[in-house]
Amino acid sequence: xxxxxxxxxxxxxxxxxxxxxxxxxxxxxxxxxxxxxxxxxxxxxxxxxxxxxxxxxxxxxxxxxxxxxxxxxxxxxxxxxxxxxxxxxxxxxxxxxxxxxxxxxxxxxxxxxxxxxxxxxxxxxxxx
Length: 128
Hints:
This protein is an alpha/beta fold. The protein is 22% helix and 35% strand. The strands form two sheets. It has a four-stranded mixed β-sheet with strand order 1-4-3-2, covered by helices on one side. A four-stranded mixed β-sheet has the order 5-8-7-6.
């Protein structure tokens, strides 16, 4: 039996705002325009947005780790799209990430990773 992650689902109240943000952030294309659900498709990943009947209040139940080989550039770009800086965790040279919040306050991380690991999720990069 084979299994893979099909989509990560984020509950939100402002579906249009979140669709614009995550489509631009991850270069995804919305493939549905339903009033209560959006599937955003990409070459290597899908992300789903589901309208919540009430404001989303439970945090840290789910978050995304975004891998990049140019962390500061991506952090700046995402902030320009509407994300908010939360904190930078860089106390371990082998594990460096920036926590951001999307326009509705959902936390996600921008992780510094070698280019080979960013391009190929299956790549194993040896620590120096």
